[in-house]
Amino acid sequence: MYSLLAEIVGPENVSREDFELWCYSRDAGSVFPRLPECIVTPKSKEQVAEILKVANEYKKPVIPRGAGSSMCGAPVPLKGGVMLDLTGLKRIKIQDEEGLFVRAEAGVIWTEIIEVLKQRGREIGLEGPWSAPSATAGGSVAVGAICMGAAKYGGLGTQILGLEVALADGSIVRTGSAANRNNEMVMRDCNGADLTGLSIGSHGTLGIITEVSLKTYAFHEAEAYYAYSFESLEDAARAVYGLARDEIAFDCRMFVYPVPEEIGGVAGVVYMLKGSGSQIQELGGKSRKIMQLAHGKSISEFGEQYYKGRFTARVKAFGEAGPGWLEVAGYIPILRYPAVAKEIIKYWKKREEEAKNLGIKWSLGALLETHSINIPVAIFCSEVKRDAWQRINSYWHELAELMYERGVSPYWIGHLSSHIVKRWGPYYQLYKKIKESLDPNNILNPGML
Ligand SMILES: Cc1cc2nc3c(=O)[nH]c(=O)nc-3n(C[C@H](O)[C@H](O)[C@H](O)COP(=O)(O)OP(=O)(O)OC[C@H]3O[C@@H](n4cnc5c(N)ncnc54)[C@H](O)[C@@H]3O)c2cc1C
To answer: Distance, CA 58 to ligand 1 centroid (Å)?
Structure first.
């Protein structure tokens, strides 16, 4: 099989070298590594399709991988097999004159899309995840990444006009309007059922995304940044709720533990506005009233510092805190946030001494999505300390359980959440049926479901 793969992509684009296998044995999360059998780096969708045909015939697992920046273990090759590195699919296509939509191949990273569009006076709605300088378009769609700008636009799916996906049997499907060969990927909701949605959040289990078509917008004139300090979680949640209700923020986040020193209090809320000068003025005025009503204290410099560093700050901060890192996160209604957050704080209080002795740190925050809030709990340690590494994995499971029981719906399903996936009931059965029908030999990222 290895020589067949080498024939498809050229010998220089396959590898079985030990040191390379180790580089592909894990993602950015502190999930225990597993080695793939080989790495293949295709340069086109046609090569992806040929690789799938071979793997399907040999019933070999195929694990698609973008930047490997996910933190839930999703591209870890649980059952060995072929690691399909999609970073070689790198073209950005601006189809019409003004660039009302942009097509990016799976391996294109977010900051590249942003840069190409900026030169034309356009921009994408969501700016990609906070890992935008490395995360790929294909990988982000596959995990349903929560992106900068989620407060205004919601999930990544709202920005997608269509996808091109290679299925396990090597056939290539274009979704939405592009199901018609004479059309482009300009409209998701047409030609029957929404098959684009099948790939969003599918973590490489149903097909390999080879191309993503995204909406674009006129480049914004202005940005404004705000930060507020609150003396109770309820007040902070009320403030975030107000921003959501009145559709004000482009992006909005909450700090609960630790609250940055510059903000202080029990919780901090930062948000960013984007638009024309007059829109920013109007929205800024409305937002200040909402903050005042919720008893927020303005800490304006922090908002600017936080959002201006948005493409680099998180990588640096998390690198320093860990660098080993796991995260449990999911969505709930905004006003239920304080109750769940308090349970999480209680959980950590009981483990304060143990975590301190092992050098384990944690953080709790929130990200506003248009109609809900994402509640991320990050756990950090140095992986050099084996006992700490093992313990953060068990903390992860306990927290996933605690949060799921309180209604939090995980948006990454990586290998760490496999026990929770099975509790979806009929939803899980339907997912499995779809998987069995699209991938009867279970070659695509097996072990995830
Ligand atoms: C500093 C930092 C900040 C981050 N911030 C955020 C954030 O704000 N929001 C957020 O959601 N995440 C965040 N992440 C996690 C991660 O970066 C994102 O979720 C990112 O979108 C994953 O993209 P990737 O290309 O690295 O995918 P990978 O990690 O390579 O893959 C993720 C999953 O998708 C599958 N996959 C990859 N490519 C394809 C494809 N073309 N077709 C089908 N399946 C595929 C893989 O098999 C795997 O299951 C952050 C990570 C870091 C390190």
So the answer is: 28
pLDDT tens digit string along 155-168? 999 999 999 999 99
Number of Cβ atoms within 10 Å of the Cβ of 419: 11
| Structural domain spans, the chain | 2-87, 90-218, 222-310, 314-421
Residue 104 main-chain phi, psi, to 5 deg = -120, 135
pLDDT at 420 over 90: no
The contacts of residue 25 (CB under 8 Å, 6+ apart) are 33, 34, 35, 36, 76, 77
- Domain covering 314-421: architecture: 2-Layer Sandwich (3.30)
The ligand 1 atom at the shortest distance from the C-alpha of residue 146 is 11
Query: Which pLDDT tens digit goes with each residue over 132-188?
Result: 999 999 999 999 999 999 999 999 999 999 999 999 999 999 999 999 999 999 999
Atom number, ligand 1, closest to the C-alpha of residue 144: 11
Q: Does domain 90-218 have CATH number 3.40.50.720?
A: no
CA of 44 to the centre of ligand 1 (A): 20
Residue 135 pLDDT: 97
CATH architecture of 222-310: 2-Layer Sandwich (3.30)
How many helices (H) and strands (E) are present in the chain, helices listed first? 16, 20
Band (pLDDT 50/70/90 cuts) for residue 314 is: low
Model confidence pLDDT, tens digit, residues 374-397? 999 999 999 999 999 999 999 999
